[in-house]
Structures are given as structure tokens and as C-alpha cells.
Amino acid sequence: MISQFARFTETMPDELNVWMVTRKAPPLPFLPEAFHGKEMIALALCYVGDPKEGEKLIEPLHGFGTVLGEHIGVQPYIAWQQAFDPLLSKGARNYWKSHNFSQISDGVIDAIIEYAARLPSPQCEIFIATIGGQTASVAPEAMAYSSRDANYVMNVHGRWETAAEDAHCIAWAREFFAKSQPFASSGVYINFLTEEETDRISFAYGATYNRLVELKNKYDPTNLFRMNQNIKPV
């Protein structure tokens, strides 16, 4: 199914976006209770256009595997953005690692299958978001974000409840990150960097980093705006 997702997203129109999530099935109302807690692959869809045309475009997705449930229909974009909020309630412990990919190669797929088969917590997940489309039509040096060769962004999301699980869940995320790294492209999405990854900030911005340092020196030399993975003044 992951291979089918990869090939499908290579040719889908810009109006359609499909994300893939591998995790254990959460207790959502449209999923049969018998499958709750079992490994699954979820596809999150967003089509901006005529609904009838959208239905035709996503029809092939129904043949990717056994469909356990679906929750698809016309809704405001803000509702789509909030669809997964119930799975991200406050209080859990979280650890993320991320890569960009220009393509979902066989090596990436093998790594996903290996680590999705040993999720350390019911809330841990690996997701692949598709980007590309119009973002690829902008020159890398035109804006702060320069990863215009990235067609996918991967986030391995470790999420669990107790401190006793810290070492196991963090190790799982780091191991998958290392296993998939040889297949990654340039850059990384800055908002997916954790506190420990200050060494990847310049990598995230790529060719635009030095220009951004110049702007930081000019407009924020005291580093007032620093509550993130920010660019420090020199």
C-alpha cells in the first residue's frame, strides 16, 4: 500500500493532497472497535475543487488495501485542519524527528514497514505529507524556505504517556530517523525540529541561511524573538 501511495502522489493534480499515516488504530467512531489498537495505514485527503471531480480522483485509493473505515465529505478547510485534534490532547510526552524527500524510494518504504511493525506506543506514528505542486515552482532563493526539491516531508512522531517509556520511544524515533536518512533530500521543515537539533537550523534553511542571518543582525541583533528554533545573530 505504501508503494501505491507513493506512485499515486507522483501524478495527482495540485488541487489534491494525500497524506499517509502509519500507526495503531485509534478509537475513532468511523473505525470498527475490533480494529482499535491494531496497526493500520491511514490516508488523509484534501481536495480543493469540484466535489464530484474530487470523488473521481480519489476512487483509486479505495483499491490500495482493505478499507476499515472512512470519513470523507465536503467540509470547510478549517474543519479539515482540526480533524486530528482529538488525538493530540494535552499532557502526553512527545519527541519528533523529520526528513524531506524528493521521492518515496524503496529504501524509505522498507524503513517505514520495519518501524511501523514495532511501534513502541499506541500513539506513536510515522506520517508522510505531500508537498511539491506549486511550492516547486518557486526559486529556492526567493523566500526563507528553500527546499523546493522536496515533494514529501516525513515526521516520525513519538508520543506516549509516562516517563518510564521515554528511553524506548525516543530510541525508536531516532533509529527510524537514522535508517531513513540515506534516502532524504536537502533541508528539513523548521517547525519539526526539536530542542536538541540546533545543529540542523542552517540545514533547514539551506541556501538562504546566510541572507537570513544578515536580516537577523539588522532587525533583531539582541535575539528578542528566540522562542523557537531560530536564527541567532552573529
Question: What does it look like?
Answer:
This protein is an alpha+beta fold and 234 residues long. The protein is 28% helix and 18% strand. The chain has seven helices and five strands. It has helices spanning 2-11, 51-58, 77-81, 106-116, 166-180, 201-205, 209-219; strands spanning 16-24, 39-47, 93-101, 125-130, 152-160. A five-stranded antiparallel sheet has the order 2-1-4-5-3. Helix 4 runs antiparallel to helix 5 (166-180). The longest helix is centred in the last third of the chain and has 15 residues, at 166-180. The termini are far apart. 22% of the residues are buried. The model has no long low-confidence stretch (mean pLDDT 92).
Write a short abstract of this structure.
The protein is built from seven helices and five strands; from the N terminus they run αββααβαββααα.
SSE layout:
Layout: H1 2-11, E1 16-24, E2 39-47, H2 51-58, H3 77-81, E3 93-101, H4 106-116, E4 125-130, E5 152-160, H5 166-180, H6 201-205, H7 209-219
Helix pairs in contact: 4-5
